[in-house]
């Protein structure tokens, strides 16, 4: 959602004031959300259903399936 600053407060921009680039980004965000949610099973879907952006969804799924940086590092050391 595009933002704007009004009296020092960050608020969502009204749809009528969106530029073409902001509109395209919002469309891509919606398309990617649909792609991600359509490929998940029910358990994973409920895990990310409250996310407001695709970045949030991706981060949650990444940590769920790959682990945090510390877990990745520990796995590498265990393999070595």
Stretches where pLDDT is under 50 for at least 5 consecutive residues are none
Cα gyration radius (Å): 18 Å
Percent helix, as a range, is: 55-70%
Total number of strands? 2
Strand order of the largest sheet: 1-2
Global geometry:
elongated
Largest β-sheet summary: 2 strands, antiparallel
Instruction: Write the element-wise H/E pattern from the N-terminal end onward.
Output: EEHHHH
Note the beta-strand portion. Answer: 5-15%
Structural class by SSE content: mainly alpha
Summarize the structure in words:
This protein has 80 residues and is mostly helical. The chain has one domain (3-79). It is 62% helix and 10% strand. The chain has a two-stranded antiparallel sheet. Strand 1 (3-6) and strand 2 form a beta hairpin.
Task: Based on the model shown, name its key terms.
mainly alpha, single chain, 80 residues, two-stranded antiparallel sheet
